[in-house]
Amino acid sequence: MTPAGDLSWRGRLRALRGIVWRETMRFTRQRERFLSALVRPLVWLFIFAAGFRAVLGMSIIPPYETYVLYDTYVMPGLCAMILLFAGMQSSLSMVYDRETGAMRTLLVSPFPRWFLLTSKLAGGVAVSVLQVYAFVLVAWLWGIEPPPLGHLAVLPALILSGLMFGAFGLLLSSVIRQLENFAGVMNFVIFPMFFASSALYPLWRIRESSVLLWRIAQFNPFTHAVELIRFAFYLRINWLSLGVVVACGIVFLALAVIAYDPSKGLILRKGRD
Amino acid sequence: MTENALTVGGVSHSFGALRALDDVSLTVPRGRFVALLGVNGAGKTTLFSLITRLYNSRSGHIAVLGHDLRTDPGPALAALGVVFQSRALDADLTVAQNLGYHAALHGMARGAARSRAREVLAAVGLSEKHDARVATLSGGQTRRAEIARALMHRPALLLLDEATAGLDVRARAEVGRLVRDLVAREGMGVLWATHIFEEIEPEDRVVVLHRGRVRAEASAAEIAGDKGLAPAFLDLTGAAGEAEARA
Question: What is its main location (chain A) (predicted)?
Fold first, then answer.
């Protein structure tokens, strides 16, 4: 019997399409996941930012060319927050897949593991970018209106940032043994990354209150994802943030591929996965 | 073309200080049903994980259809169909969607996958469940759907790791009969890991694995001799002596 599979580039494209399709199916099945992904930033926008807009005015800082209201300032940070949560969600789903055995279906595919993991990452990013655009639409209705072209210009920034967080999630999933440990990810990864960044306050304001926190925020990849998205919304490129996001994405993905490699990986050491 | 669907030569594997497999060698010829017989903890699942490249073997070699798993993993895995010990279908998707996903993971075109799905579901007697959600299937039907999925890409070697675990006697017999029919009809090699003696027929080739080592490799009838398979197995593995010592 001759195997019917196709290992050529065409076969790889079919595998990529299949993996992205499965990620999308999983997402559409979980409507509550979509709602919570949308509600979380909206709570920040409608309650937190609305409360602070009266007391926190923003001085003119790039990429803004005039004073902006606080809710306009936090909007890119909330977009990045959606991507961060989505990345961690994909980490959670990888751990879940490993526990249920679905991961093995993926890993015994004849295609290289780096390709399979990158495809899974691409599927997760496609879904998370859709979530961001749903949020941006609501924010636009709320009166936060970056330049119209900015909504298109921000797409590459969202994809790059989504890839970085997704790769980080993949890496985390290789070291998280059980779903129960995911609460630790919330406490020790998501919250520190979000709060020690420029998502809620500009870096100069953070520096005024704590130089240490300012330094941490500068080294936080989340800060650079936020700034990359913020600048892209206003049709500008923050080259430093672009470099950091791309470099971190490559490093996280490389480490995740190593962690999932059967000859070197952490999965091997965990025994029966 | 190589006669063996699977060749395992001198494979050893450890988890830390625990030696899970020790110099294991076996072959599965094309068109043969080979039972890998061992109690829980014998090393069957570890061996399957090495053959499916979930772990890399660090010593010895494994080849599927002559393709070395370490140096030529793509063609080796493409020739391999697997039914894992634990369920691996997505319960929220339909049977057809699960098969389509598997076909995509092997690079199959959608049209070819659709017609192959109808073929394999007919082969396992699940044609009417094509559009049923996996969550609605019985245990036996789920197992048959898993076998159908493993057959999607026309593998030359089918691995089944305790495929009848959790099934009642009737469903177990059905799955066993189905796999034997497939061996006869499609000429693939089958490695069937089990600890249930009743699943083994006298003409089957049997590899007895115990504490990570191959204790015997012969036909079931040869291993059983005059005693029967179960007593012969206990003799080979020293389990009878252990039981007496415990008593």
Answer: membrane
> Hunting for tokens 């039981």 — which residue is that?
B243
Interior/surface letters A98-136, b for 16+ CB within 10 angstroms, e for the rest: beeebbbbbbbbbbebeebbbbbbbbbbebbbbbbebbb
* Cβ–Cβ below 8 Å for A3 and B186: no
Tokens representing B80 are 């391999």
For chain B positions 136-165, those within 8 Å of chain A (CB to CB) are: 152-156
Are B80 and B159 within 8 A, CB to CB? yes
With a cut of 50, say whether residue B234 has pLDDT above it: yes
User: Token match 């790889």: residue?
Assistant: A12
* Closest residue of chain A to B83, computed from CA coordinates: A105
What type of residue sits at position A84?
L
A31 at the B interface (CB within 8 A)?
no
What token pair was written down for B55?
A: 């772990």
C-alpha dihedral (A2, A3, A9, A11), degrees to nearest 10: 130
- In this prediction, what percent of chain B has a pLDDT beyond 90? 49
Asked if B88 lies within 8 A of A110 by C-beta distance, the reply is no
Angstrom distances, CA of residue A192 to CA of A4, A123, A156, A188: 48, 26, 25, 6
Domains in chain B with CATH codes: 4-79+156-246 (3.40.50.300), 88-154 (no CATH)
Which ipTM score applies to this complex?
A: 0.84
Q: Distance (Å, rounded) from C-alpha A229 to C-alpha A238?
A: 9
Q: What is the least distance, in Å, from the CA of A15 to any CA of chain B? A: 5
